[in-house]
C-alpha cells in the first residue's frame, strides 16, 4: 500500500475517513477518483447507500475506502446513525443495506421485508473511565456485578468497597461516579445490556436487554463517538464504547473479571476466545450472542456485528456489486484490515456459512449474476 493510501490507527483513526457524529448523516469514506477505460462505468457512478451501527463504522469506512481501488465504479455512502434507526430504514427500504450489532428477533425479521443478517467481524466493548487520580495508574479491575451495580446507581463513589475489593493497593478517590450511556437506540447498548442481563438478575428483570432501555442513572451520549467525547470531558465518568473508540480517544479502560474468574483485557485474542466459547454454528439466522463466555481467556463483553441485506435485490447492478464487495471483504484482502482496527475476522467455518448464504441472494427472483 502506498503512503497516500495508508489509513493510520492509534494517534488518528481513519485519517481520510473521519469518524462521523452518530445518529447524524455521515457519508462513508471513499477512495480517490481513478480513471477507467471506456468500457467501464465511470468512477463512482454506482452509488450504494447504507445506514446503521456506529460500532463497526471504523472497519466499514476502511473497507469502503480500500475498495475504491478494487472497483472504482462503486461508491459507498454509509450513514453512521445507530442500529435502532437503521433497522427501520432497512425494513422501509430507504437504503441498499443496513448494519446492526443487535440480533433481530423473529418478529423483527418477519417484518423486515426479506432481510437477512450477515456477520462481518466481531469486536469488544471497553468499560472506559476518566478519573484524574487514576490517570497514571494501571487499569483498574471490574467484574460484572460491580459494573451492573454502577449502572443501576447502587455504587456511586469510586472508592466504594466493591471497587476497592477488586483493586487492593489502589488509591481510589472518594469521588462521585458519573455514568455515561447511549442516548440513542444502539447495538452497542444491546451487547452491553445483554451482558448485564447475564450477570445481574436485578438488571435482567428491572432494565432488560434491548437496543434502547430506561437507564436508571447517568448522562446520555449519541453514538460511540458521543459517549467517548463525554467520557473524555467528564472527570469521574465511566461508560461503554467499542474498543477502537476507547483506544483512538486515549481513554483508560478497565480489565474485566470474566465468568471463569480470570482478569482479562479487551483485545483481539480475548475476543477470539469469546467467539470460540460459543462455537462456529451460527444457525439459520447467522447470529449468536457471545457475551459472558465460560472460557478462561474470554473477554466477557464482545459481540458480532452484522450487515442486513435484502435477499431478493431489485437493482441487479447494485446487487451484484454489493455481493462482489462482500466477497472481497470476507477474503484475505479485506480481513487483513480488521486487526489493524481491533476487530476480529470471522472464523473460517463461520465464513463458509456466510458465503453459502450470500450465494443465494437473487435479483427480482432470478439468480444474481456473479452471486
What would you call the shape?
Answer: elongated
Number of continuous helical runs: 13
What order do the SSEs take from the amino end to the carboxyl end, as H and E?
EHEHEHEEHHEHHEHEHEEEHEEHHEHEE
What fraction strand?
A: 15-25%
Corresponding CATH architecture of the largest domain: 3-Layer(aba) Sandwich
CATH topology of the largest domain: D-Maltodextrin-Binding Protein, domain 2
Key traits:
single chain, 371 residues, alpha/beta, D-Maltodextrin-Binding Protein, domain 2, 10-stranded mixed sheet, 3-stranded mixed sheet, 13 helices, disordered N terminus
What does this structure look like?
The protein is an alpha/beta fold. It folds into 2 domains: 3-122 and 303-367, Periplasmic binding protein-like II (D-Maltodextrin-Binding Protein, domain 2); 125-277, Periplasmic binding protein-like II (D-Maltodextrin-Binding Protein, domain 2, 3-Layer(aba) Sandwich), CATH 3.40.190.10. The protein has helices at 57-70, 83-91, 106-110, 144-152, 161-166, 187-199, 201-206, 223-233, 243-248, 268-277, 316-330, 332-335, 348-358, and strands at residues 46-52, 74-80, 97-100, 115-130, 141-143, 178-182, 219-221, 237-242, 252-253, 255-257, 263-264, 302-310, 312-313, 344-345, 362-363, 366-367. Strand 1 (46-52), helix 1 and strand 2 form a beta-alpha-beta unit. The relative contact order is 0.16. The model is unreliable at 1-38 (pLDDT under 50).
Amino acid at each position: 500500500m502506498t503512503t497516500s493510501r495508508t489509513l493510520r490507527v492509534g494517534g488518528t483513526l481513519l485519517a481520510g475517513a473521519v469518524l462521523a457524529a452518530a445518529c447524524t448523516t455521515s457519508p462513508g469514506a471513499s477512495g480517490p477518483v481513478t480513471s477507467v477505460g471506456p468500457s467501464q462505468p465511470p468512477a463512482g457512478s454506482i452509488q450504494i447507500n447504507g445506514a446503521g451501527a456506529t460500532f463497526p463504522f471504523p472497519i466499514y469506512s476502511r473497507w469502503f475506502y480500500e475498495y475504491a481501488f478494487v472497483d472504482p465504479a462503486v461508491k459507498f455512502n454509509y450513514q453512521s446513525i445507530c442500529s435502532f434507526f437503521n433497522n427501520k430504514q432497512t425494513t422501509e427500504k430507504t437504503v441498499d443495506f443496513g448494519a446492526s450489532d443487535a440480533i433481530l428477533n423473529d418478529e423483527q425479521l418477519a417484518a423486515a421485508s426479506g432481510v437477512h443478517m450477515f456477520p462481518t467481524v466481531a469486536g469488544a466493548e471497553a468499560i472506559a473511565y476518566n478519573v484524574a487520580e487514576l490517570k497514571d495508574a494501571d487499569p483498574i479491575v471490574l467484574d460484572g456485578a460491580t459494573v451492573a451495580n454502577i449502572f443501576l446507581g447502587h455504587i456511586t463513589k469510586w472508592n466504594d468497597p466493591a471497587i476497592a475489593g477488586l483493586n487492593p493497593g489502589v488509591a481510589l478517590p472518594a469521588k462521585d461516579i458519573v455514568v455515561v450511556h447511549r442516548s440513542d437506540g444502539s447495538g452497542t447498548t444491546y451487547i452491553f445490556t445483554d451482558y448485564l442481563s447475564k450477570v445481574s438478575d436485578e438488571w435482567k428483570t428491572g432494565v432488560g436487554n434491548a437496543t434502547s432501555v430506561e437507564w436508571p442513572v447517568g448522562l446520555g451520549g449519541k453514538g460511540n463517538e458521543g459517549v467517548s467525547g463525554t467520557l473524555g470531558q467528564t472527570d469521574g465518568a465511566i461508560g461503554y464504547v467499542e474498543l477502537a473508540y476507547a483506544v483512538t480517544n486515549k481513554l483508560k479502560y478497565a480489565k474485566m473479571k470474566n465468568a471463569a474468574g480470570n482478569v482479562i483485557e479487551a483485545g483481539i485474542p480475548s475476543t477470539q476466545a469469546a467467539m470460540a466459547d460459543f462455537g462456529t454454528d451460527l444457525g439459520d439466522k447467522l447470529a449468536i450472542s457471545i457475551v459472558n463466555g465460560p472460557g478462561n481467556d474470554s473477554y466477557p463483553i464482545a459481540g458480532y456485528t452484522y450487515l442486513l441485506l435484502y435477499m431478493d435485490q431489485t437493482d441487479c447492478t447494485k446487487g451484484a456489486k454489493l455481493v462482489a464487495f462482500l466477497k472481497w471483504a470476507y477474503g484475505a484482502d479485506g480481513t487483513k484490515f480488521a486487526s489493524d482496527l481491533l476487530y476480529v475476522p470471522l472464523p473460517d467455518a463461520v465464513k463458509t456459512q456466510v458465503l453459502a448464504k450470500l450465494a443465494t441472494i437473487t435479483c427480482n427472483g432470478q439468480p444474481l449474476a456473479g452471486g
